[in-house]
Amino acid sequence: MNKLSFHILFLFYFCFTLNGCSSTSLFTLHDIPKPNGSHAVGTRQFDWTNENLKDQFSTDSTKNRRIMVQFWYPGILNESDVPFLYCDNPIIIDELSREYKIPAKFLNEALHVKTNSYSNLQPYIGKTKYPLIIFSHGKGGYKSQNTVQFEELASNGYVVLSVDHSYDAVITVFSDSTIASYVSDDAKKVGDPVLADKITQKKLSARVSDIKFVMDKIWDDYRSIPLFRIIDTSKVGMFGHSFGAATTVLSSQLDTRIDVSAGLDGWFVPLSDNHLKNGLKIPFLHIGRKSWGLFSNNYQKMEKLMNNSQSKQAHYPVKRMQHFDFMDGSQSASLAIKLVLPHMSIYNKEKIKNVLNKMLLVYFDSNLKGENSVSVEMVSRQLKTIVD
């Protein structure tokens, strides 16, 4: 629910360094851990404009909505290929420097964090086409915030698509280097909780429109873009983090092309009573914190949604994990950063990765590939030290 910017951790990096409390080595960012699948992972970005939707968050209300979309997919790797960098554009550093009033030199390490994906690889054509999985980030999140899960899925034979929801991502950098900044709907900033709620509802509507648009785009351009031709459009899953889980639920209710859905520490509060009463006609898996503390009505809403659903719904509460642990920060941040960053635990990062990667992979394998030799329940029992 809060502004989910992984990059805010650099604020603490800056403060600690200035005060001499620790050496900068304590704040080193780690490369993204390697996935376990057999496929090399390609990644490709698209700059798309929805000609049928005006962007109500743009300073120019006459402009159509524009979004950045990134894919991860099985690809053919050449020896000369180099890994894609997690933060691939210095413009992001410059914007974050202005946003948080932190000298850019303290943010530059992010430019060197490596992933296990390679830009624009030729898609690997297998014996069968690959299911499509769509991801939606949280408020103030970003399209690559769960690269660890995207690479795990892609390396195991999925095409993963993630959207920067413009003006609700921490920053969106378009192909021409123009940007869409985060538009806060925090009641403290807008000065009116009712107005904040209205803005949230507008964002939810824009997000759902984004999801429909990217699916339509793939379906329409299926024959003209080689990457799309490896997608099995009859097998579609979706998942999201925080506000992205609410986006997933509403998208799944409105678009019958989505066959299975999931949420990571989902924020269900934006869903209306009608959304909750309608429930879901497709399976939904939720992996989240044991409690949302003061926001106890969040899980009450989730339970109402699940109780009104027609298909199998499952909630797995996890011990020790905090909201930011469900993003890449838990894998990349050092212990020192975790100690000072709110909403992130110091719990064993390997166990955190296993919970998210293994449970999501088995869940999608079961529902989209019909592979039932291992179930989510079995995985949760294997991980019982962290999953209740």
Write a brief caption for the model:
By secondary structure, the chain is an alpha/beta fold.
What is this structure's SSE topology?
Blueprint: H1 9-19, E1 40-54, E2 64-76, H2 90-100, E3 117-119, E4 122-123, E5 130-136, H3 147-155, E6 159-164, E7 171-173, E8 179-181, H4 187-190, H5 193-220, H6 226-229, E9 231-241, H7 243-254, E10 260-264, H8 273-278, E11 284-289, H9 297-307, E12 313-318, H10 329-332, H11 335-340, H12 349-369, H13 376-382
Helix pairs in contact: 3-12, 5-7
Structural class of the helices, strands and pairings? alpha/beta
The chain-level mean pLDDT equals 87
Euclidean distance between termini CA atoms: 23 Å
If you compute it from the alpha carbons, what radius of gyration comes out, rounded to the nearest whole angstrom? 20 Å
Low-pLDDT parts are: 1-24
Shape verdict: globular
Q: What is the count of helical runs?
A: 13
Q: Main sheet?
A: 10 strands, mixed
What proportion of the residues form beta strands (DSSP E)? 15-25%
Q: What is the strand tally?
A: 12
Name the quaternary structure: single chain
Helix content: 25-40%
Series of H and E elements:
HEEHEEEHEEEHHHEHEHEHEHHHH
